Amino acid sequence: MAIFQQLTMRMNAFSFGGVRTLTEHSENVASRPRIHLLRCMLLHIMRTQMWKFLAFLILVATAVSLYAQQSTAKPEDTEVWQPEPKVVTPGATLGGAPSDAIVLFDGKNLDEWVSAQDRSAPAKWTVADSVVTVNKAAGNIETKRTFRNYQFHMEWRIPENVTGSGQLRGNSGLFLASTGPGDAGYELQVLDSYNNKTYVNGMAGSIYKQSIPLANPMRKPGEWQAYDVVWTAPVFNTDGSLKSPAYVTVFLNGVLVDNHFELKGETRYIGQPFYKKFDRAPIKLQAHGDPSPPISFRNIWVRELD
Region 190-201: what's the mean pLDDT? Predict the structure, then answer.
């Protein structure tokens, strides 16, 4: 700044000195009004040029400073080494449970599940040939454990001989948080949406009556479908009011169908969604009452993200 101050003083001295000389000479040959006008014009020109020159010097100084900083920077300045992510061994096959997953169903039994109507009672769906099939008379089942935020994988199959249409064709549901008996909670729809027309916020891949899937990648009945879900649970204030909403990302058969979708509250068959306070909740599977043949599930696991 000292250099700029000296330069400014010298330019001012030159400007006003030059003007005085020009003025004294002009007063001998012209009237005072004309001399005054000429003086103002010359002062304006000199001041404009002086500030342009000063601005140029500032830009040059800034560029030199930035270059000096960049020339001393090292690649190591932006490298982060800690903490190291934990090592997770992936599943042996695509969709297989990784090493840190909680296996909820491995084809052997329903030890991780209970009746959603009576949590003291065991789940009474049918396990055979490494799959579990819905027992509609027994009602919904849900996990013994409760969860908050998680990654979830599940495979499901619509019977090849499925009958019915619309919502009465291979209907079930994956409740990402079960907040009570029956169908209370947050439902990701399970349905035969292969050449089966229904309302689009109720087809497979929808957050029931809230989201419309971004695509319909359903396979034919008789073939296995796969859900991969990332669930972020809602957070509530101590007074029960909503602090942050629930979000869900869903892949159906490897295709993104819900992209960080913000839920408006619990899913409702009739009426508008709403939030009510809860902390952790079970994951629930629905035994829907439609008359079509029951669907089956396999390879169910979850990774907690808390």
Answer: 97
